[in-house]
Specification:
The protein has about 900 residues and is α/β, with parallel strands linked by helices. It is about 35% helix and about 20% strand. Among the domains are: about 130 residues, Rossmann fold (3-Layer(aba) Sandwich), CATH 3.40.50.980; about 110 residues, ANL, C-terminal domain (GMP Synthetase, Chain A, domain 3, 2-Layer Sandwich), CATH 3.30.300; about 220 residues, no CATH class; about 120 residues, Rossmann fold.
C-alpha cells in the first residue's frame, strides 16, 4: 500500500467538514508511528477509540507503519450506557489480548479503568523528518465479527489477504478512481471498515465519511452530500434504506452507480419503496451477502432480483465473487475462500473437514444466485411449518411504526399442544395499557402469517441487541423465559389465568358464536381441545367459543360449592403517606375500617419514593430483577413487594409534592450496571434503600424533573398497573391546583398543627373511599388470621429523604479531621465511607442518639469530628458537628477557628455533579 496512491477522504463530524489528503500525509504518519513506538515499545496489538475523524485514519496507518496490529473499537455515544460500553471494551481487551489503547482525549477518563496502557491523543499531529512511503504487506490487522452471541469475536487478517479479497471483490464491483463512496457507517464494523475504508485505500477511491451520529441527527444529509460531492457508491443495511425511504431528495441523484444493501436481511418491500421515493433505478440497487469471517463479500447482485417462495418475495444476494465457494448443509450456508478464516483469535478452528465455515444463515441457490432466508436459530417450526422469526420482526416493524427496532419475535414451546409457538415481544413502557395491546394485537393478526401467536408488552431495554444493533434472539428468549418463571414463582402480576384470557392469547379476532369447526383449522382445533382439557371439560366440534366458556364457568361453580373457603384472606392497606401529616392511625381506627368493610384489615406504612419512581421500581422488579436476584436486593424487593401485594394504596401530597419534589431518587439500571453518581446518593434509614450502595443504580433523578402537573397521572398509572384503588389525600393549600379530583382535602398551611378531629376526617374519607371501591378491592392471602393484625405497623421512616452529597464538602472535611463519629448508617453516603477507607481515617458509626441527644456507646474523647449522614437530631457535644444530611438543625456546630463551610459547599445540582464526575 503506497502512501502516494492513497485517496482523499472527506469527513463530516461535529457539524463541520474536514479533508484528508492521505497521499500527502506520509510525514504525519511517520511522526505518529515514532510516537507509538516510543509509547508502546514491546506491545503489538493496539486498540483505537476515536469518532469518525482524520485522527482515527492517520493513527490506524501509523500503527501499521510501526509494525503493530490495529483494531478499531467502538466510540461511545450519548445514547449508550458508558458502563455497558466499557464492559464491552474490557471484554475485547481480555479476549483479543490487546496490549495498548490509543484514544481521543475527550474519553481518556473512561479508559483509565482498563487494565492496559492507554495513550491519550490530544489532536497534535506534526511532520516527522522522514516520510512513510508505503505500508508493508507483511503486516496484519484485527477486526471484530458482528457478535450475534452477545460479545463480538476477534479475527486477525494479514494485509496480503485483505488485498487479495479486495481484488476478487472488485472483479464484480468494478470500482475505478472515478468513483466516490459516501458512507455514514462506523469503521468498527466490517461493512464500514472493509467496503468503505480498506477497499478504497487499496484502489485509490475517494471516500466521504460522516459520523453515524451526524447522520442519525440529520438524515437528509446523506442525499445532500451525494448530490454535492457526486457520490457513486453507498452501502447501507436494510434499516438504512427503510429510514431513507421516508425522506424524498429534492432532486434525483444521477451520479449514483450502486446502492448496496448489506449486513442484514434485505426486504423487497423496503428496497422497492426506497427506489420509488428516491426515484432510483432498480438496476442500481444491489444486495450483498458479506461477513467478517470471509473478510467481507461472499456474493453481490447486479440490480434488485427476487424470487417468490411461500407467498413472499425473497431478495437475491447475487452471484458469488471469484475465489469463493458455497455449499448447503441441511439448508445452512457454508462458505470457503482463499481469504476466509480457520478460526477466531484465541479460539479453536471453526471450519469443517473441507475447509468450509458454517455461517448460521439459511438459504438456497437458484440459477447461480444465492438467496438468504434468515438465521439458522431464527427458524421456528410449528406443526411442521417453517416460520422465519426475522421475517416476523420485519412484518411487525412494518405494521407498528413506533416499534421499529423495539420488537423481537421469539419461539416458545407450547406445552398444551407439544409444538412451538410464536411470541412477539414489544417494548412499550406502558406495559399495562390494555387498549393499546388490543389495538396492536388486532393489527398483527392481519399481517402475521400464523393463526395464533402471543403478544407481550415489556418495558424498554428488555430486548438485548448485539453491538451492530441486531436482535440477540437467544439472550432475549432466555431473559423472557426467566421473566415468565419469575412471574409464576412470585405471582408478580397477580392475574388469574381464566378461560377468557387463554382464548384471547390464542384467538383474538375470531367469532365467539359460530361452531369452532367452521372457524378454526386443525391446529386451532387441537389448541382448543388442549385448553378445554386444562379446565377439565370435554368439548365437541359443533360448540362455539361462547358455549365452551359457559361450560367452563359452570364446572368451576360446581367445584366452588364443594370447596370450603379458608379464613386467611384480608384486605391489605399499605400507606406511603407522610405520617407526620396529619398523624398515625391507631388500632381502633383499623378496627373501624374492618367493621365498615366487613372483612379483616391489615395496615402497614412503607417509606417509598413518589409514584413515578415506584412504577419504575415495579417494572424493574417484575421484568429485570430475575436476571440478577440475590440477597443484596432483599430489603429493596421486600418494600417493592409490599406495594405489589397491597389491596389498597394510600398516598398524599406531602409524599408526592412536598418531599417528593425536593429530593432526589435512585433509578435502577435495566442493564444491571451501577453508575458512579449513585455513590453520592445520601439517604436516611428507610428500609427501601438500605442496600442501594450495592445495587445497580443506573441514575439519580431529581424530583423536580417530574412535572407537578403529571403527578396525578403517574398515581393513576400506578393504580392501573397494580389493578388496585389508590386513595389520594390533599393536606396543603400550596399544591391545590395539582390535587383537584383527589379523595380527601384539608388544604392547610405547611406548618399546621394537626388535630385529632382532622385525623378523624381523614379516616372517615378513607372509609368512604373504601366502601365506594369495595368491588375493586382484592382480598389477599396471609398466614392464619389473628387479632394482632389490627395493629397498624409504622416501622419505617415517616417520609422519603434522599439527595446527593457534594464531594467538595466531603474532601474538605476529610482533609481537616482524622477521627470521625458518623451519625448514620454505613449505607447512608457510600462516597463518604469509601473516601474514609481510602484515606485510612478512623471512623465509627452511631445510629441513634441517647437521652438529651447525648452521644452513647462511643468515647467522644477518641474522636475529633461528628458527621451527620442520615441520623436525626442535634448531638449534645462539644465536638465539631457537620450535617452532610440535615438532621433537624443547622449545617454545622462547634467548627474550629479558621475552618469555614458555607451552604454552597453542601449543595450541588445533579448537572453540576455529573460535570464534576466527567472531569475526574
Amino acid at each position: 500500500m503506497e502512501i502516494c496512491n492513497l485517496p482523499d477522504i472527506q469527513i463530516y463530524n461535529n457539524s463541520q467538514w474536514s479533508q484528508l489528503r492521505l497521499s500527502e500525509c506520509g510525514a504525519k504518519i511517520r511522526w505518529l508511528s515514532d510516537n507509538i513506538q516510543r509509547e508502546f515499545p514491546n506491545e503489538k496489538k493496539i486498540g483505537l477509540i476515536f469518532s469518525s475523524s482524520p485522527e482515527l485514519i492517520l493513527y490506524w496507518l501509523a500503527i501499521l507503519d510501526a509494525g503493530k496490529e490495529p483494531l478499531i473499537l467502538q466510540y461511545p455515544t450519548k445514547k449508550q450506557s458508558y458502563e455497558y460500553w466499557l464492559d464491552s471494551i474490557q471484554h475485547i481487551v481480555k479476549t483479543v489480548g490487546l496490549e495498548g489503547i490509543l484514544c481521543a482525549s475527550e474519553i481518556a477518563h473512561f479508559t483509565l479503568q482498563l487494565p492496559i496502557h492507554t495513550m491519550q491523543c490530544n489532536g497534535e499531529i506534526m511532520d516527522a523528518p522522514s516520510r512513510c512511503e508505503f505500508i508493508s504487506d507483511e503486516g496484519a490487522i484485527i477486526q471484530l465479527s458482528s457478535g450475534t452471541t452477545g460479545h463480538r469475536k476477534a479475527i486477525r487478517y494479514k494485509l496480503v489477504d485483505l488485498y487479495r479479497h479486495v481484488l476478487h471483490y472488485n472483479q464484480v464491483l468494478q470500482l475505478t478512481e472515478k468513483d466516490c463512496i459516501v458512507s455514514w457507517l462506523p469503521l468498527y464494523h466490517d461493512m464500514g471498515f472493509i467496503a468503505c475504508f480498506v477497499m478504497p485505500l487499496y484502489l485509490n477511491i475517494k471516500v466521504v465519511m460522516m459520523d453515524p451520529m451526524e447522520w442519525i441527527n440529520n438524515r437528509p444529509l446523506l442525499y445532500d452530500t451525494i448530490e454535492k460531492l457526486q457520490g457513486t457508491i453507498c452501502y447501507m443495511p436494510n434499516f438504512g434504506f427503510e429510514v431513507m425511504a421516508r425522506i424524498t431528495p429534492e432532486r434525483p441523484l444521477p451520479s449514483m452507480r450502486r446502492w448496496i444493501s448489506c449486513s442484514e436481511p434485505s426486504h423487497w418491500e423496503t428496497l422497492s419503496k426506497f427506489c420509488a421515493v428516491s426515484r432510483t433505478n432498480v438496476e442500481t440497487l444491489c444486495t450483498c451477502y458479506a461477513m467478517a469471517e470471509n473478510v467481507f463479500a461472499v456474493s453481490i447482485s447486479n440490480g434488485l432480483r427476487t424470487i417468490s417462495k411461500c407467498n413472499k418475495q425473497i431478495v437475491s444476494c447475487g452471484v458469488l465473487i471469484p475465489g469463493t465457494a458455497v455449499k448447503l448443509v441441511d439448508g445452512e450456508i457454508y462458505v470457503k475462500s482463499s481469504t476466509s478464516i480457520i478460526g477466531y483469535m484465541n479460539g479453536d478452528p471453526i471450519i469443517d473437514n473441507e475447509g468450509y465455515y458454517p455461517t448460521g444463515d439459511m438459504g438456497f441457490m437458484e440459477n447461480g444466485e444465492l438467496f438468504v432466508e434468515g438465521r439458522k436459530h431464527d427458524v421456528m417450526i410449528q406443526a411442521g411449518e417453517k416460520i422465519l422469526l426475522s421475517e416476523m420482526d420485519y412484518l411487525v416493524n412494518q405494521a407498528i411504526m413506533y416499534c421499529e427496532g423495539r420488537c423481537a419475535a421469539i419461539c416458545l414451546h407450547d406445552e398444551r399442544i407439544g409444538t412451538q409457538k410464536l411470541a412477539i415481544i414489544l417494548e412499550q413502557e406502558r406495559v399495562w395499557d390494555k387498549q393499546e395491546w388490543t389495538r396492536v394485537y388486532q393489527l398483527l393478526t392481519k399481517v402475521l402469517p400464523v393463526e395464533s401467536f402471543e403478544l407481550h408488552f415489556v418495558p424498554t431495554e428488555f430486548i438485548t441487541k448485539t453491538s451492530s444493533g441486531k436482535i440477540n434472539r437467544n439472550k432475549t428468549t432466555t431473559d423472557f423465559l426467566k421473566f415468565q418463571s419469575w412471574q409464576n414463582q412470585q405471582n408478580v402480576l397477580e392475574q388469574e389465568e381464566t378461560i377468557e384470557t387463554i382464548i384471547q392469547s390464542y384467538f383474538s379476532n375470531i367469532p365467539h358464536d359460530l361452531p369452532i369447526a367452521t372457524i378454526l383449522d386443525s391446529m386451532g382445533l387441537l389448541i382448543m381441545d388442549a385448553v378445554a382439557s386444562d379446565f377439565n371439560v370435554a368439548i365437541s366440534r359443533d360448540m362455539s367459543i361462547a358455549q365452551i366458556t359457559e361450560l367452563v364457568h359452570s364446572n368451576q361453580m360446581m367445584l366452588n360449592h364443594t370447596t370450603k373457603l379458608g379464613d386467611n384472606k384480608v384486605i391489605k392497606i399499605v400507606s406511603v403517606m407522610d405520617y407526620l401529616v396529619p398523624g398515625m392511625f391507631t388500632s381502633e381506627d383499623i378496627n373501624k375500617i374492618s367493621n365498615a368493610l366487613g372483612a379483616p384489615v391489615t395496615f402497614e406504612h412503607v417509606c417509598m419514593p413518589p409514584a413515578y419512581f415506584m412504577l419504575l421500581d415495579l417494572l424493574f422488579c417484575d421484568y429485570f430483577l430475575c436476571r440478577d436476584m440475590d440477597n443484596r436486593y432483599s430489603d429493596y424487593y421486600e418494600c417493592v413487594n409490599k406495594i405489589k401485594e397491597a389491596s389498597v394504596l394510600l398516598t398524599d401530597d406531602s409524599a408526592e409534592f412536598i418531599i417528593g419534589a425536593g429530593c432526589q431518587f435512585a433509578v435502577m439500571s435495566r442493564k444491571l450496571q451501577r453508575k458512579r453518581i449513585s455513590d453520592y446518593w445520601a439517604v436516611r434509614w428507610q428500609k427501601y434503600s438500605r442496600n442501594h450502595y450495592m445495587l445497580p443504580v443506573g441514575d439519580i433523578v431529581a424530583g423536580t424533573d417530574i412535572p407537578l402537573d403529571t403527578r396525578t397521572a403517574w398515581i393513576n398509572a400506578l393504580a392501573e398497573y397494580l389493578n388496585i384503588p389508590i386513595f389520594k389525600a390533599a393536606h396543603f393549600k400550596s399544591h391545590a391546583q395539582y390535587t383537584q379530583g383527589w379523595d380527601h382535602f384539608a388544604f392547610q398551611e405547611f406548618n399546621h398543627q394537626w388535630t385529632n378531629e382532622e385525623r378523624n376526617q381523614l379516616l372517615n374519607a378513607l372509609i368512604a373511599f373504601l366502601l365506594k371501591n369495595k368491588d375493586k378491592i382484592k382480598m389477599k392471602s396471609v398466614p392464619q388470621y389473628t387479632g394482632v393484625m389490627s395493629n397498624p405497623i409504622y416501622s419505617d421512616l415517616w417520609h422519603f429523604c434522599a439527595w446527593c452529597v457534594n464531594p467538595v464538602v466531603v474532601e474538605k472535611v476529610i482533609r481537616r479531621f482524622n477521627k470521625f463519629i458518623i451519625h448514620g448508617f454505613p449505607n447512608s453516603i457510600p462516597y463518604l465511607t469509601k473516601r474514609l477507607k481510602e484515606e485510612n481515617k478512623v471512623s465509627t458509626f452511631l445510629n441513634t442518639l441517647g437521652h438529651n441527644n447525648k452521644i452513647i456507646g462511643v468515647n467522644e474523647a477518641e474522636y475529633d469530628c461528628i458527621i451527620q449522614a442520615g441520623g436525626w437530631g442535634i448531638p449534645n457535644t462539644n465536638l465539631p458537628v457537620i450535617a452532610m444530611m440535615l438532621a433537624g438543625g443547622e449545617r454545622t456546630y462547634n467548627l474550629p477557628a479558621g475552618f469555614v463551610l458555607t451552604e454552597d459547599d453542601f449543595t450541588i445540582s445533579l448537572a453540576a455533579l455529573r460535570r464534576y464526575l466527567l472531569r475526574l
